[in-house]
Amino acid sequence: AIQMTQSPSSLSASVGDRVTITCRASQGIRNELGWYQQKPGKAPKLLIYAASSLQSGVPSRFSGSGSGTDFTLTISSLQPDDFATYYCLHDYSYPLTFGGGTKVEVK
Amino acid sequence: EVQMVESGGDLVQPGGSLRLSCAASGFIFSRFWMSWVRQAPGKGLEWVANMKYDESEKYYADSVKGRFTISRDNAKNSLYLQMNSLRVEDTAVYYCARTVDTSIYYSDYWGQGTLVTVSS
Q1: CB of B64 within 8 Å of any CB in chain A?
Q2: In this predicted model, what pLDDT tens digit does every residue of B3-26 receive, in sequence order?
Q3: Cα separation of A13 and A83, whole Å?
Q4: How many angstroms away from the CA of A93 is the closest CA of chain B?
Q5: Model confidence over A50-82: pLDDT tens digits?
Q6: How confident is the model at residue B98 (pLDDT cuts 50, 70, 90)?
Q7: Residue B115 contacts by C-beta under 8 Å, 6 or more apart in sequence?
Q8: CB-CB neighbors (< 8 A) of B1 in chain A
Q9: Distance from CA of A46 to the nearest CA of B (A)
Q10: pLDDT of residue A11
């Protein structure tokens, strides 16, 4: 199975900061990766699919990039609603695997 | 409005069985893949199983293969997860999600989850 290594596992940031989260696949997965946001006690929310396509209704401050083994989720200017945990998920082949998650906390 | 509502979560003893249900509404259920994803208390997300809209393809995580079975009833707009030989490590909130798996993949609508607790 493909392993997804996400970093950092947590970070502290302030409103207005630029935040970058990285996911590395154990083998090349083309652009077959999505990003999800989850808040405590809530279901995950789709942010990005196909590495860089923004899901409808998601603010444009979220962006994704990467291909092959290295991927990035960027929040250009962190907003109060963005404090949450973020997960990558590869869909290159079954079984699918999530990254371990990145918790974005208030600095 | 697209909606998924999971049910069936309960406290069960190790080795026991449980069947989860997911009632879908607000979209043409028979045209979408569906997924089960779980989250153990305080842990990250774990993909569990996927099923194609016409039931012709099913996929499972290695951790549940041979013990869990995903199924669906398109006439009832419902998704199921039959869980047998349950283990303590299967304790989690189980989410169902509407999924697109064509040339692109994503799960865009999720239920609120149902809690399964495996304990003696």
Answers
A1: no
A2: 999 999 999 999 999 999 999 999
A3: 9
A4: 10
A5: 999 999 999 999 999 999 999 999 999 999 999
A6: very high
A7: B9, B92, B93, B94
A8: none
A9: 6
A10: 97
Q: How far is A18 from chain B (nearest CA, A)?
A: 24
Question: Could you tell me where the DSSP H helices lie in A3-92?
Answer: none
The DSSP line for chain B is --EEEEE---EE-TT--EEEEEEEESS-GGGSEEEEEEE-TTS-EEEEEEE-TTSS-EEE-TTTTTTEEEEEEGGGTEEEEEE-S--GGG-EEEEEEEEEESSSEEEEEE---EEEEE--
- Express each pLDDT in B21-54 by its tens digit: 999 999 999 999 999 999 999 999 999 999 999 9
For residue B44, give Cα distances in angstroms to A37, A85, A95, B2, B21. Answer: 12, 9, 16, 25, 22
d(C-alpha A65, C-alpha A57), whole Å? 19
Q: In DSSP terms, which residues pair with B75 in a beta bridge?
A: none
Residue B44 and residue A99: Cβ atoms within 8 Å? yes
